[in-house]
Amino acid sequence: MKKHLSRVLPLYVLLLLFTIFATSDATIRRRDYTVPTVYPELLKPLTPITTKDPQDIYINLVLSYTDLAPDGYTRKVWTANGQYPGPLIHCNRGDRLIINVTNNFEDPTTIHWHGIFQLGSNWYDGVGGQTQCAIPPGVSFIYNYTVGDQVGTYWWHSHYLAQYVDGIRGPLIINNPDDPYLGQYDYEYVLTLEDWYHAESHNLVAMRMTQGYEAFNPIPDSGLISGRGQYDCSRARNGTKCDPNNMPAIYTVTKGKKYRFRIINMSAEAFYFFSIDQHKLKVIEVDGVDIKAIELDVLPIHIGQRFSVIVEASQDSGNYWIRANIPIDCLMFGKYTINNNSAIFNNNNITGILQYDDASNDTLPKSVDWNRNLLPCHDLDINLIKPYVDVSPPLKVTDQINITVDIGEPDEKGTAKAYINGQSWVPDLKNPSIMKIMDQNISAKEFPLNANAYMYDNEGGAVEIVMYNTNQADHPFHLHGHNFFIIGMGRDGIPDSSKYNLKDPPMRDTVTLPPNGWVVIRYMINNPGVWAFHCHIEWHVEMGMVFQLIEMQSKLQTLKMPPSVKALCQPGSQHTKRLAIPFPDDGETTVTPGGYVIPKSGPTKRLAIPSPDDGATTVTPGGYVIPKSGSTKRSAIPSPDDGETTVTPGGYVIPKSGQKEGFTKRLAIPSPDDDNVTTVTPGGYVIPKPKEGSTKVKRTTERNIKYTTKRNAWKW
Ligand code: C2O
Ligand code: CU
Question: Distance from the CA of 112 to the center of ligand 1, in angstroms?
Fold first, then answer.
């Protein structure tokens, strides 16, 4: 396999260069260095989950900076477990996910589980300024929630500033043991789409928000399929590393077999037309909702949206292009737009390869594109999407919210902002909404205007949200905590309630508000919490195109927020040396005498995070910690990939040196048994002590970057 790919690749690149630079004198630089490859597992079929009973799944996500070259150009990528895209989380319906996020960045962070309802666990939704205080650098925090009845295709990403654009994002797939389409495909693949920037997001945000800048969002440098893309290295700055022979995403198929592709758009800016030459896409799932199958040649997919399609390997054996076309029309830009000479204008047809396993190895696809007769930057027609199970939308509405979405008008300081009913959202990062409501008994009525909070309290009732777009941009709006029925959508005019579809509208959690158009959605009031609703174009988020829905505030106040969540908001309070790794007191877990946290029901099956060194436990070869029956003493933290980590004298688990590519600093959960090395925070987190004489480098200079060229000329 490897061998034939390396034969295909140079051809692939040649073809790219030929099509792109037929008139330029670009030269290919020699590959004289090595950079870790991106996450290869994503190109393999999913391992089927055959169990039915819900399980507790323990996951470590260790966040750190890693140099990677997703499109051939090496940059500092913000990674989880050293990988890009981030690790695939694959679980079963009903499973509990217990995810220990260790923040080894120099910035605070949060992780959001895009599409997961967090029924009764709003505080694990991961929205900085709304549902939690951020996880400080050096600190671990455990998200612990069940996926309930949800099934389908989701993803996870940082929800703090624009960090996900730098790499903190990965797929989350929930298997359905009763999948209605189970017999209709043989294998499952996950395929992600991402636009990619060579500059870090905080620099791009700073430029986007510079006073006087009104020239649209930053243009990405390239596009990726499952973390892999190509870049014209002749455009890379001197002194940077760039590999013009970067491997594209190659998915292998066997003739006659059927494949479920789970497609996720994890971008910051880009809308895509997805297609595979000569292969029809049978769409069976939209944003976690099974639908009656529809057959398409080309699939439109905006940021935050997901689809499952069944692809039959029914064509002549060979290689076929997988295409993720970014319509240039959807990238708004002008003369002064940040990165407006991006290479993407020469290569907006992002490609991977669908390869039949017995195909001739040395030829590139010669297949031709489908005809794209769809409107760019518009969702798949809502009249085509019918939920598999008939469900009717709420006919009566108890709460109606009207939202007008505006963009670009500079605030009094001259900074371009986005507005929801005239207000640009400002997160209260130090005292998020959930803390105000649950901890300080402050009603959302008293929130400042720029919190953009909208309340409704009628349990069992229904909300209708009517959204209007006053501008020419398309906005993929994503709702947290729910999916919704789209009962109407228009490209002009105003909503006409007599034309609403109240019979069989689509259900999803991300809908694109058309340019100068409108959308009407409804959903049931049944999930107490603070739920974000925002455009998923990350630059618009940073400009304030966000509002929050405060659902059943008084009911929310009766729920019990785990102390570990509160502790994130209480730096400097009293110092308790309790659990090494705090687990929430959610009634689901027990703490053993040795300080271990285990699931409550049944015998100890799998111990997530062991406390250090009480002489009472053993670690199995698989990395589970079990009560001792007379063997190994202590073994810090279990990792599912044993043989790859070492425990330091201070109790840190670190990667073994010289291990496989793309794998850095995987586990870094310190044990608290060494006072010289670790400190326990008030919330019970164990953090490394700063080393003697080392001072934290503040990145203020980098952050405050000012784009000074031609400032006055930026108005267009
Ligand atoms: Cu993908 Cu507010 O989320
Ligand atoms: Cu937007």
Answer: 7
Starting from the CA of residue 537, give the closest ligand. Answer: 2
Tell me the pLDDT tens digit for each residue of 170-182. Answer: 999 999 999 999 9
How would you classify the pairing of strands 319-325 and 289-296? unpaired
- Separation CA 338–CA 215 (nearest Å): 8
Instruction: Tell me: pLDDT of 584 over 50.
Output: no
Cα(627) to ligand 2 centroid in Å equals: 52
How many A from CA of 476 to the centre of ligand 2? 6
Q: Which atom of ligand 1 is nearest to the CA of 304?
A: 1
Residue-level pLDDT at 35: 52
* Ligand nearest the Cα atom of residue 304: 1
For 544, the token pair is: 């304030």
State yes or no: pLDDT of 425 exceeds 80: yes
Q: For residue 510, which ligand has an atom nearest its CA?
A: 1
Residue nearest to atom 1 of ligand 1 (CA): 114
The residues, ordered by sequence, that sit 6+ positions from 621 with a Cβ below 8 Å of its Cβ are: 642
Q: Is the pLDDT at 190 greater than 80, yes or no?
A: yes
Handedness of CA 17, 20, 23, 25 (dihedral sign): negative
* Cα gap 522→645, rounded to integer Å: 49
Cα→Cα distances 496→392, 499, 500, 502, 519, Å: 19, 6, 7, 13, 11
Cα(477) to centroid of ligand 2, in Å?
A: 7
Q: Which atom of ligand 1 is nearest to the CA of 480?
A: 2
Residues 269, 222: Cα–Cα separation, whole Å: 11
For residue 571, the model assigns a pLDDT of 65
CB count within 10 Å of CB 410 equals 14
Confidence of residue 37 (pLDDT cuts 50, 70, 90): low
Residue 657: both structure tokens together: 């040196």
pLDDT for the residue numbered 473: 93
- Ligand 1: atom nearest CA of 532 is 2
CA of 173 to the centre of ligand 2 (A): 26
What is the spatial distance between Cα 404 and Cα 469, in angstroms, rounded to a whole number? 6
Output the ligand 1 site: residues, CB below 6 A.
112, 114, 157, 159, 304, 478, 480, 532, 534, 536
The rounded distance, in Å, linking the Cα atoms of 223 and 344 is 8
Q: Are strands 96-103 and 56-68 parallel, antiparallel or unpaired?
A: parallel
Mean pLDDT within 662-683: 33
Q: How would you write 298-335 as a 3-class SS string?
A: CEEECCCCEEEEEEECCCCCCEEEEEEECCHHHCCCCC
- What are the residues whose beta carbons fall under 8 Å from the beta carbon of 368, sequence distance 6 or more? 277
Mean pLDDT of 5-28: 39
Give the rounded percent of residues in the chain with a pLDDT score beyond 90: 63
Is residue 142's pLDDT more than 60?
A: yes
Judged against a pLDDT cut of 70, whether residue 573 lies above it is answered with no
Please state, rounded to an integer, the average pLDDT across all residues of the chain: 79
CA of 635 to the centre of ligand 1 (A): 37
CA dist 660 and 199 (Å) reads 27
Provide the pLDDT for residue 247.
85
User: What angle is formed at CA 669 by the lines to CA 666 and CA 670, rounded to 5 degrees?
Assistant: 130
Residues with Cβ within 8 Å of residue 426, at least 6 apart in sequence: 448, 450, 451, 544
- For ligand 1, atom 3, the nearest C-alpha belongs to 114
Closest CA to 189 of 122, 276, 111: 276
Which two three-digit tokens encode residue 630?
């007379």
- The mean pLDDT of 655-674, rounded to a whole number, is 31
- Closest C-alpha among 70, 12, 60 to residue 40: 70
Which segment of 87-96, 341-350, 427-436, 599-608 scores lowest on mean pLDDT? 599-608
Asked if residue 85 has a cis previous peptide bond (ω within 30° of 0), the answer is yes
> Does residue 564 carry a pLDDT above 80?
yes
Strand partners, 640: none
